[in-house]
Design goal:
single chain, alpha/beta, 5-stranded parallel β-sheet, 3-stranded mixed β-sheet, about 45% helix, about 15% strand
Amino acid sequence: MAEQITKKRCAIYTRKSTDENLSSDFNSLDAQREACENYIRSQIAKGWQILPERYDDGGFSGGNMKRPALQRLLEDCQAGKVDIIVIYKLDRLSRSLCDFAELSKKFDEYNIDFCSVTQEINTSTSAGRMMLNILMTFAEFERSIVTERIRDKMSASRKKGLWVGGTVPLGYKVENKKLVIHEEDAQIVRLIFQRFIETQSPKLIAHELNMAGKRTKKGRVWNTSHIYRILNNHTYNGEVKYKEEICKGEQKRLVSAEVWNRTQEILAHNSPVSDRSRKLEIVAPLKGVLKCGHCGGAMMPTYGKKNGRRYHYYLCCKDSKRSETECPVRQLPAGEIEEVVKSQLKVIMTQPAVLTALSDNAGISCSDILQIFESDFWTEISAGEYNRLVQLLIERAVVWQDHIDIEIKTEGIKSLIGEFCNA
């Protein structure tokens, strides 16, 4: 009686790193599949059968597993639709040793064998697994070499002033892999530079552009960040910036040298002092914890000068970048909001529910906790100690137009009480 041959369903996986020539009648993916089909036919005596489903990843790197066809293949393997995975070469499946180790675990879990057409590998033996790891190590090394070559090539191209791709700056378009001036958009850029020299106000410029119906290259309304990015972009001066090095670019300058230089002088004059030791440190206990409830952003500490006197306040970061104020909170006097938070802390630390929870967690009586936070504690505490106290106790303080919500850190309170008890 003839021995019955068990059928083996073979899925063919192919990959190509670039999408070049994918639209041609016969491309690299087709060549890989043809070689795999011929190999499977040579194993027909062992019951190997070709699955009609195609798993082709064209234009995807082997450095990660974020590939649609590979994910479909893994799903089908998990569902029990595949017995053997056939590939042209191991690096078609993955060029990362870590990713390949993860794939191997999945194959073992799903009871899947795999075969490389051009490399004799038998994963059922220890020697075969060792050879597999050696080959994968070389595949990852080859990928690293290719990455370094691409990085070096881009570096050399940037230093020569060549366009190497990326986001096209407003005012330019790409023709024959080169930046050329797009005159309609270029007028907006020139207007931004000219108005900055006249007004020195990015917020006013953003407001004027929005009122005129102009939008950014991505179709968004203008804000101060967009204006600053344009004013600092060396592309408009006919240059290319690579890391900290400025090189002459092949593209035509969009603004004159006089306009560019004057703009940089104004920006340098208006920028903060580079030497941090010369800055006056702002004592701001609510820094990092005070949030704007309306905009969802941070309220950052800053100050203004009037008649030689400094006035400290917290400013809504998101609203400060808009061309027009939309936030009902916008900015708050530092002294007033800090006093409100302090008074709220006083109340919170005397609430029965809070006292009971602290007593249970910290192992200290409610009366002892009240004694710690008696009235003298809040009046005698120094500015530095209060800053630390706020950072320790408050998770976040969300300020609205008519109220403030404070979220307390339970672990911070326990730590604070522990310090008092050990003092």
